[in-house]
Design brief:
The complex is a heterodimer of chains A (about 350) and B (about 240). Chain A is of the alpha+beta class. Chain A contains 6 helices and 15 strands. Chain A folds into 3 domains: about 45 residues, no CATH class; about 190 residues, no CATH class; about 30 residues. Helix content of chain A is about 20%, strand content about 35%. In chain A, strands 4, 5, 6, 7, 8, 9, 10, 11, 12, 13, 14 and 15 form a 12-stranded mixed β-sheet that branches. Chain A starts with 17 loop residues before the first strand and ends with a helix. The N terminus of chain A is likely disordered. Chain B has a domain of about 160 residues: Roll (Diaminopimelate Epimerase, Chain A, domain 1), CATH 3.10.310. Chain B contains 7 helices and 6 strands. Chain B starts with a helix and ends with a strand. The relative contact order of chain B is 0.12. Classes of the chains: A alpha+beta (about 350), B alpha/beta (about 240). Chains A and B meet through β3, α1, β9, β10 and α4 of A and α1, α7 and β5 of B. β10 of chain A pairs antiparallel with β5 of chain B.
């Protein structure tokens, strides 16, 4: 004889289930819902309640710069930005604020990137990208378009942490199916409730997380994706003629963002296996990563900044794909002008239509 | 300049449509039949010309009939008979509205047929009654008929203010959608939600796939009483309604 000492919780209200001799099933004394015994057992067996996600990450290589590499660190006294470039570069200005930068030392002993995606698009492409970005935007203030307001177009190798992992996940969903029918005096709606359990795995390659405090995270995520098939092992030569930002967010500090995105993607992938129900609501998900690996990469970014009405506007272009982003200011007068024109036009058209309908 | 263009276009549309509305000038039927003699000759003439104008404008017949007695018939059957026996009705649909007043029993009946039956529903008939009955109650028949004719005209005329209100609401909703979509084009910086671009191709494998049936709930709601529209009952034609004044 099987003697169940396990406590089963009601999937509907959370109360403690009791065996119901009349129906030979499990019944909740609180909400009176009855359950199939096998379902309840399975549900308890597959429970992931209280399980915390586990993300395990390891830094792979730890190459360091040596003095022979001839790279120097410059920092900006005005905004605190730190950049890396060849130490033959006599003087340069800060790519973030335009102020002069000063030499603060060389890079020896610091972490060297593992990968780099070389610039594929040049400065002219970046300028063209901006021109196209400003096109067709009717609410953009005219002066913003007319004047050449861009201070300087700078190509920067931005520091990123790349996260690779195999993710194992288990997710429980609450799903329903409904059936409606009616007899002579009533309409009936039957809702069947299900617990869906999905377990599986998927792998991620090179989930990038911005490693620079000076570069806005949202801006950097907006120019994604990068195609990492074109990434190559890092060589100092790629930096020639460009600036590189030095990471100031550690790989440990970047992990939560990578975890968040991996978890979300995993949940999305699993959601596609829950078809055939009227509603599907995720109840609990548990994600665990294995063979998690973090690499340090430099990715190409074209940066442009401008100031308008006392506010700074930063534009970024993906130096590999040409994806161009940057929020733009709105001309309030233009907004109300277009609102007025459309309102008058559509109202007149609607009035004419109503009149035509009345004639018929 | 764009605004004036729109106004011009609108005016153009109206000017094309307007002439179409009053081209027809059919032979005028007899519109005021005052057998009970409640109107003076002058009043009768004025009322006739008013109803003739309405016929031209709204393309249906407007007839006012006063009689002394129904001779035992119901107001509906009298009005219906009068309308069809005398060949009233505009166009193919024989559209028209007939107001019958029987003096001895103080009965009135508004009889509608064809197009008029569609245009004068319950609420419109109430508008007519509200306009004319106070006068009839005071035996001011001429004023009552004028009020009735004006009310008919109101019901059938294009409701400019009501339509303008609807048009402005439509215009406001659509123009706001358009302008806000223009505004949204200015924003291009958005954080990524997931990492789907970096999922290794073909790496997704499901190792467990359990759908557990839990329980069901059934709710029932009483069906609405099935009173299919009362409408015209057996054998009658035309619409409208009547009462006492």
């Amino acid at each position: 004889m099987e003697n169940d000492i396990l406590e089963y919780k009601c999937p509907s209200c959370g109360g403690k289930l009791e065996f119901n001799t009349a129906g030979q099933n499990m019944k909740c004394p609180y909400c009176d819902t009855e359950f199939d015994v096998e379902s309840v057992k399975n549900l308890a067996f597959e429970s992931i309640d209280g399980k915390e996600d586990e993300f395990n990450w390891e830094r792979e290589s730890k190459n360091e710069w040596s003095e022979d590499d001839g790279m120097a660190v410059y920092s900006c006294k005005s905004c605190g930005g730190e950049i890396v470039c060849e130490d033959v570069t006599a003087a340069t200005s800060c790519p973030y604020c335009g102020n002069p930068v000063v030499f603060t030392g060389n890079l020896s002993g610091e972490l060297m990137p593992d990968l780099v995606i070389p610039f594929k698009l040049d400065k002219e492409a970046a300028k063209e990208g901006l021109r196209k970005h400003l096109m067709g935007k009717k609410l953009l203030p005219k002066v913003f378009k007319d004047e050449n307001r861009i201070n300087e177009v700078k190509g920067i190798y931005a520091p990123f942490w790349l996260f690779d992992a195999d993710a194992d996940a288990k997710i429980r969903y609450h799903a329903t199916r409904t059936r409606v029918w009616s007899d002579s005096s009533y309409n009936y709606t039957e809702t069947s409730h299900y617990a869906l359990i999905r377990e599986g795995n998927l792998s991620f390659d090179n989930v990038p997380v911005d490693g620079s405090r000076k570069l806005d995270d949202a801006l950097m995520e907006s120019i994604e994706p990068y195609n990492f098939a074109e990434a190559v092992d890092f060589k100092t030569a790629y930096l020639s003629g460009f600036l590189a930002d030095k990471y100031d967010v550690t790989s440990e500090q970047s992990q939560p963002r990578a975890n968040e995105r991996i978890k979300r993607s995993t949940e999305n992938a699993f959601m596609s296996t829950t078809l055939g129900y009227a509603t599907v609501v995720p109840e609990r998900s548990y994600v665990k990563t294995a063979s998690g690996r973090i690499r340090y990469a430099l990715l190409p970014v074209w940066l442009m900044t401008t100031e308008w009405n006392g506010k700074n506007y930063t534009f970024a272009m993906n130096g590999q794909t040409g994806k161009f982003v940057g929020d733009l200011p709105m001309d309030k007068n233009a907004f109300f002008k277009y609102l007025g024109l459309w309102l008058a036009g559509i109202t007149a058209a609607a009035m004419a239509l109503l009149y035509l309908l009345w004639l018929i | 300049m764009k605004k004036s263009l729109i106004i011009t276009a609108f005016a153009l549309i109206i000017s094309i449509i307007l002439p179409l509305t009053s081209y027809a000038s059919p032979d005028m039927p007899l519109t005021v039949i005052d057998d009970a003699g409640v109107l003076s000759d002058l009043e009768e003439d004025r009322l006739t010309s008013k109803l003739d104008d309405l016929i031209k404008e709204h393309k249906m017949h407007f007839i006012i009939v006063t009689i002394d007695d129904l001779n035992g018939r119901t107001p509906y059957s009298y009005a219906d008979g009068y309308y069809h026996d005398n060949g009233y009705g505009y166009g193919k649909k024989k559209s028209g509205i007939l107001l019958l007043l029987a003096m001895s029993t103080r009965d009135y009946y508004i009889y509608t047929y064809g197009e008029a039956e569609d245009k004068f529903g319950d609420s419109e008939l109430t508008e007519l009654e509200d306009a004319m009955l106070p006068y009839f109650g005071d035996n001011e028949f001429y004023d009552g008929f004028l009020a009735y004719a004006d009310a008919c005209d109101d019901v059938l005329s294009f409701d400019i203010f009501g339509s303008l209100l609807i048009a402005v609401v439509i215009g406001a909703i659509i123009s706001l959608i358009i302008v806000f979509s223009m505004k949204s084009k200015l924003k291009s910086v958005r954080p990524q939600k997931a990492a789907s671009n970096y999922v290794r191709n073909g790496s997704f494998m499901l190792t467990k796939d359990l759908d557990l049936y839990l329980y069901r709930t059934i709710t029932r709601t009483k069906r609405a009483e099935n009173n299919s529209g009362s409408g015209s009952s057996g054998g009658s034609r035309g619409g409208g309604r009547g009462g006492k004044f």
